[in-house]
Amino acid sequence: MSLPLAEDDAQRPLISIIIPCYNEEARLPATLESFDDYLRGNPGILPIEQVELLVVDNNSRDATARVAREFATTHAYAQVITETRQGKGAAVHTGMLAGRGHYLMFCDADQAMPFTELPKFLPPIRSDYSVAIASREAPGSKRFNEPASRHAQGRVASWLTKLVLNLPFEDTQCGYKSFERTAAKKIFALRTIDGFGFDFEILYIARQLGYKVDEVPIYWFHQPGSTVRPGIDTFKVLSELWRVRNQAQRGKYGIRAAR
Question: 120-129 long-range contacts, Cβ below 8 Å, gap at least 24?
Answer without folding.
Answer: 120/216, 120/217, 120/218, 121/178, 121/216, 122/1, 122/14, 122/15, 122/46, 123/1, 123/3, 124/1, 126/214, 126/216, 128/180, 129/178, 129/180, 129/212, 129/214
